[in-house]
Amino acid sequence: MRGVVFLGDRELELRDLPDPEPGPREVIVQMKASGMCGSDLNTYRLSREARAKRPMNVAGHEPCGVVAARGSGITDTEARIGERVMVHHYSGCERCRNCRVGYTQMCLEGSKVYGGGADGGHAKFMRVLPYMLVPLPDELTFEEGAAVSCGTGTAFLALERLAVSGRDTLVVYGQGPVGLSATMLAKAMGARVIVVDLSPERLQLARDFGADETVNVNHGDPVAAIKELTHGEGAEATLDCTGNPTARANAVKSAVDWGRVCFVGEGNTATFDMSPDVIHKQLTLYGSWTFSQTGQARAARFVIDRKIPLQKLLTHRFKLEEAEPAYTLFDTQTTGKGVFVFD
């Protein structure tokens, strides 16, 4: 098989690799769709020197497909040949308190990230452990399952943390795939949604997905714009999907007194004045890191039950052989979600 490997400095290669064979307690998933996530760009953009210090594994942490093979120790209750599955792209010790509640990315003994420290979904086959499999409901396509497997699932769990409802105005900073997912999901939860971005293309996508108001950071102070849209007070809930230090600080500054703020964008730092911005406003701040296996399943069910038009999020589809132009386009950060599709 061939798999996508990031080399650094915005270069990649399609590397020839042996088809994986399952160990006694392993499962082979044949990919049907593998999503492109904004966090993939962090590795894609690394310098070659920095990239060389990390494992050079197959990329892709939004895998979705069918069970193609299984080890001798795997039962039908764990994985059936031909079963449609999403992959929760982490593994851990399976024994610590965090693993036991499905947050294997928070394993106290150390976790493994597939598509980072282990081979991911940008290849025909992927070797995983049985507890990483999350059944893909028949109502969802493989492409939609790939979206739920990171970006959309991440947005859903963040909105759960924020307890978003029809009482809230929610501000979403960043309209990449996670932010656009948050816009769609929050509208289904009943919220009034204000989105902030600098890309006219993504702001238009947000409007198409139901955003009530859009704010372009190139056209003035976004905090002032949000205050103007909220009777001078700020929003009940804000969500940062960018990882940008300024956007994070603005997410805090644009929250109303007793408001809630959640951060999902990875990397970087944030600086704000603790007393006036947080303590005196009595804010609640959350960090939200993807989801558990049950959270992933819950996100999929919400998409189905609320009839979320997740296909609209998937603006670009590619064959694996098109990986180079696919990531070149995705790197412009002007599109919705890109996904590799397999026969």
- What is the first-to-last residue Cα distance? 13 Å
Number of helices: 12
Indicate the overall shape.
Answer: globular
The radius of gyration over CA amounts to 20 Å
- Please state the second-level CATH architecture of the largest domain: Alpha-Beta Complex
- Number of domain units: 2
Q: What composes the largest sheet? A: 7 strands, mixed
Poorly predicted tracts of residues? none
Structure summary, number of beta strands: 17
Reported by name, the CATH topology of the largest domain is Quinone Oxidoreductase, Chain A, domain 1
Q: Mean pLDDT, nearest integer?
A: 97
Structure class: alpha/beta
State the CATH superfamily name of the largest domain. Answer: Medium-chain alcohol dehydrogenases, catalytic domain
Strand content: 25-35%
Order of secondary-structure elements: EEEHHEEEHEEEHHEHEHEHEHEHEHEHE
**Helix amount, in percent?**
25-40%
CATH class of the largest domain, please?
A: Alpha Beta
